[in-house]
Amino acid sequence: MKNKPKFIYETLLVRYGQLNWWPTIRRDPPAETPYEVIVGAVLTQNTAWRNVEKALANFGAKLSPQAVSDMELAELSEIIRPAGFFNQKSVYLKSVTAWFAQYGFDVQKVREKSLEDVRAELLSVKGVGKETADSILLYAFGFPSFVVDAYTMRFCGRYPIDAGTGYDAVKKYFEAHIPASSAVYNNYHALIVINAKEHCRKKPLCSGCPLADTCGRCGL
Questions:
Q1: In the chain, what is the straight-line distance between the N-terminal and C-terminal CA atoms, in Å?
Q2: pLDDT digit string (tens) for 83-96?
Q3: Best exposed site among 49, 135, 196, 205 by fewest CB in 10 Å?
Q4: Is the pTM of the predicted complex or chain greater than 0.90?
Q5: How many CB atoms lie within 10 A of CB 194?
Q6: Of 46, 4, 50, 8, nearest to 187 (Cα)?
Q7: Which long-range contacts (CB under 8 A, 24 or more apart) does 105-110 make?
Q8: 195 by DSSP, 3-state: which?
């Protein structure tokens, strides 16, 4: 199998199709603005998405960068309480909103810079780690930046894929084997996640998995 990542993507794609991940699959109704995606990417740290949805709903008409910029921390913390770690995350939201303000909250101005520069800027923002930064780059701004999460790490270790260890190594591996495409990276991440929830769980359910015939850990 010369290109495992390509084979995996094509196999999962046949089973699950185009999932149109964030915001469609994770938000009902879908996120209306890139800023809502940014907020969601921060709030989803260390919590289930259902809790993020409750927090997003609490914003009502106040889910805008201008509103969050002007909001007192205490009010912001109360709004996002359902997402957990609300005191920390309110500070993180203020920080990433201040970063976005440097671009006048203009998505196109962000996109005029290189992916590498924007990623470096995001990683310097308080509360924005690698997964959060790549989620913002991919889903909010459409940069082809592969997102690695716990599902991806579990899958790589189990299938197995010789992608190395750690976030950077796995990200580099997939980006080296899959042509840079925000649409493909978007769907690939979604495919890994949905297959992880359906089959590649902590206790794997291998029966019916589209990758069962080629998985080195099938049934183990």
A1: 22
A2: 999 999 999 999 99
A3: 205
A4: yes
A5: 18
A6: 8
A7: 105/35, 105/65, 105/66, 107/34, 107/140, 107/141, 110/141
A8: helix
